Structures are given as structure tokens and as C-alpha cells.
Amino acid sequence: MATQPLNLEPVGLDAFVQPAPRIVDQIPPIPPRARMHGPITARLLYRFYAFLALWFAAGVAPAVLGMGPQWIAFGFGMIFPGAGFLYSGGIAGVALAAVSVAAFAVIMFIWWARGVIVGPPAVLLGTSLASAAWIEGSSGVAWMTWGIPVAVASVHGYLALGRRREFAAAQARAVDLNPVITKVEPLLRDYPVVAADEMPTAQIAEFRRMLDLALQPVDSWNGFSTEDTWQDGALRYQICTMSWNLSMGQYTQLPAFHGYLNTAQENLIRKHIDRKTWNYWYWESLWGNLKPDKNPVHIDNIMLTGFLGVSLGMFETSSGTSPFAAPGSLTFRWDDKTAFPYSHSTMLEEVVKNYKRYEMGWFPCEPRWTYSMCNLVGRTALELHDGRHGTHYADAISDRFEQTMEEEMMLADGRIKVCTSAPFGFTVPSLSGLFGEAWGIRFLTPHAPAQAERLWQILKQQWITRKDDGGLDFKLLPLGWDTRKPADFSKWPELNPLILVLWSALEMGDGEIIAATRTEIGRRYDPGLADAMTWSRRNTVRDMVNKGLPEAWAKGPILAEATYPDVIVTRAVTDGEALDLVLHPGGQAGAFDLGFARLKPGRSYRIVQTGQTLEAMLDGRATASVAVQGRTEIKLVPA
Hints:
By secondary structure, the chain is of the alpha+beta class.
């Protein structure tokens, strides 16, 4: 089916065709970095390196002291996976060493993915004990007693020199980038909040898919994927992606529609607090924090509380309602005897406490792994609540947060570390690519627009450019998030980073990259896919945080009731007096009841297209039966 192209900026609105004031006067330069690490990170790393040195000394001690072959094999196995088998010699020893290395690589991935901090030492211990048992009765290879320690020390030295070289290269890139990015005209503009055009065909299809999932009973999970419990295919991410898209769609295209759209968003939040969504935390806390913990809120786990906080804040902002403000309205129930009651505000108070618990002022997702995008999301959750309720949650953590961003998380070339080890300080380099770094752009614009401008221009200089044929040329890391198969699009390995580029470009208002990314997605996958993934516009997250609903949207008439799936609402906007709707039949055309609210009590209203008149009751409500045949425009005006 041909798709209707999505006009990314509203038409016929002077506010969008006339110049608007810049939000950022000039893109700031990348600050010079004389040292590879910030003070906190450096201290963590020095402690980690000292521990490794002691571990190495203990591992080579049996060889230095002339102890027996079993002790030597055990010690070597503890300083490098499989080294004890190499010491035993022979083809079998080499094969077992290779198996040990493979096992260690797998557990290192599991440690990152699930926070199993006991995994790597457990594998080293297990393979070392196995090598000691294997060599029993043999003497081992004599030259390995010095060859293995020298090789291990050389590997560490080579990696250290590589880090130094990369740091020097990043410093040089910053010197080259600064004259370029500081001369680029900033993109962010302070436009008024106005409604975007109606949904195109592909977006309507995605809207219906999300509504079908969200409007089923809260304890029903038909259509949700349960194959991934731990990473970005997990239920919590499926839920929050739909929550955010529906809220942004309501804010940009449907600000005057509540009804089943509000119900869908409330249901998704209730699914988010269902134990099926957060049951993972008990296990991650057990093997990552080394303590059983059924409460998923009070210690770490920003991947739950921060993301849920944004869902709550965006829903409050787009709908003007606060259904989760009451005590106990967010209750995380483990079983009939154990539950953890919170409200929107008290859950965010726990988020603030978690930020303050760490010297960095940032806190982990998986146990002991700190992600920049998750912490930016968590801060945005606080800012959304502050904007709607006048609290000061973000103020309580902002100074340390910003200091950590610049001193600890920013690389020498201005890019951002995506994932770091909270206890040890090292970075996982395979995550700091296009996907991981573009993730944070939208959540920088509300509080740090200058940082967003700078990071976006750095990404454009290093990772993404418009091709001559109108598509997008983009660079991905060979390993890591950029090129792995995403959970929901296993046949489309480049889709996740492209979607993140699209969302970032939309927030920044970068028309050239928006067009190029849409073209590239259409060529690679489906011509309508970019429409289906477009739920925001310029400044959407920034405006939701800092501006909220315009007064006309907050107080004007709304479509309060429509029957799903009989009536699909694809645009609903009020100017404070009149109401403009675009409707489509979800199945057969017919006459359907529509419920209106926030009308002036006792006032008469008229539907322009049909001439029908209706009178608002004392509660400001009224009902009318309207024929919906194909695309149907409805305009309700005071009579």
C-alpha cells in the first residue's frame, strides 16, 4: 500500500516558516583534555591496576618459588584463561587452553549483559583448578615458566600503549574538530509548540499495533516478545518504547484526544510495574550486587526507574492528567505478602537518592555497570516531574551530574562514554558507537542544548553524512551494539542505529539528516518504515520538559471518548475554543458515538461538516453520532 509522506513540520504556520531565535548562540568547543581520565575514574583505575598487579604477582609466585607443576599451572591459569593448560604442553593442552579462552569470553559478555560480577573470577578459578588436575604427574613445559608471565605482561603493556595512542589520536581529532564545529550554525531554535500534521498510513498501522498491545488486559501479554529478559528486547524496553511513542504522538498530533489513548498509556505503565517486567532484578541483584533484593526501585536499576519515570512524565505532560500521583498507585508486587508501594513522586525520590549514593553522581543499570544514556533518561524523568509539579529533583543532582559528564564521561574528542564499570572505572569500547551515542541526544536537549549541539555535530563529522544520492552514509563499529542483530528486527542489523539517528535528527530539527535517514531506511527496509517510527518533531523532548502543554491544549475542548477499534483518531487539536479532528474507520464505515469534554457548560456547539448541533452539559460534556467513512474531518465550533 502506498504511504502518505509525513510532512515533518506543520504547514500554514508562520511560527515555523519565520526565523526563530537560537537556543544556543554558538556551539561550544571540545574542552582540552590533558589527562586520559577524570579524577574519580583515574582513582578507580589505579586501584584496579594495583589489584591486577597483585593478582599477577600471586599467579607467578609458584613459578618464582619453584613450587610443583600443579601449583604453577594453577597460578598461570589465574592470570590468563587457559594458561595453565598451555603450561602442560601438547596438542590437548593447547585445545583446552582455547576452550578456556572461549569460556572466559562468554562469561565476560554475560558479566556485561547481566551484571554477573562473580562470573569471570569463577571461570578463572574453575579452569585453573582443571589445569592443575590435568597436569598431575607431568612436569610441564620448562620455558613456559617464564614465557607465560612475559607474554601476559606484554599483552597488558601493548593494551596500555594502545590506549595511550587512542587518547593522543582523540586529542588530535578534537584539535581538528573545534574549528569546524564552532563555525557551524546551531540547529536548535525556540519555535512555539504547535501540532504536526495528521498521521500518514504507515504511522496509523504502527499506532494500531501499539494500541492492540496496550489495550488488552493488563495481565495479558499477547504480542509481546518474551525471548529476551535482560537486554534491549526485554519487556521493560518494549513497554517504554510504546509509552514514549504514544505520549509524543499525543503531544505532537493528538493533544486534544484522551479516550482510549490515555487508557493505553495507563495500561502500559501498569504493565511496567507488573512483576513479569521487573522479575529480572532479583537475579541481577543476587549475582551482581551479591544480595537478594525483591525491591526493584531502591538500589540501582535506573533501566527500570529512569525509563518508567520518563513514561510517567511524558504521559502527564501530553495528557495533562496525573493518575499515578496517589500513594501506592505504583505498587511493585512480588507476591501476596510482599509489595513495594510507591507513587510517581516517591519513586523519583528513590532515583534522586541513587544518584546521590555514588561519588560520580550517576548510578548503574545492570549491577555495577553505568550507562550514559540511562542516566540521561533518568535525569529527564526528574525534569519532567519538576516541570509539571514544581519540584526540584533535578536541581538536587545537577551540579555533580554535569561535572561527571564533562570530567568523567566525555572522551578527548568530545564523544561520550556509553558504558563504564562502576567499581573498576574502565569503559566498554564496543558500545561507544553510533547507536550508543546517538541514544542520548534527545535527552540532552532539555537541560544541556549546547552539549546536544556539540555531540550531534561531532557525530556528523565522524559517523554520518548525507550521500550524493540522497541517502545516508553511516559508519558502524564492527563489534558491539551497532552491528548486532536487534531483538525485534533480526534480519535488519543496521536498523537500530538508523532509527536512533532519525529520532536524534528529528529532535535537533536537522532537515538534511532527517531526509537522508528516511531515504536510507526506505531503501534498505520498507518505504513506510520511517513514517511508522516518526512520533516526534523538532524539540519534542525539550518542549515536553520545559514548556508542557500550551494553555489552549490544556484547557480547550477534547475528544474524550471514541470506540476502539471502530474509530481511529489520527489528529486532534484545539485552539482553546474549537476542536479539529481527523478520523478513520478501523473496520467497516459507519456512524459512531463521539464523546466531547471540556466544553463550556450550557453552550451550544456545531459540527461544521454535518451541521449537527449539541449542547454541553453542566460537566462540560456532550455526545454526538458521526458518520466515519474513509478519512473524515470533523470540526466542532461554538454555535
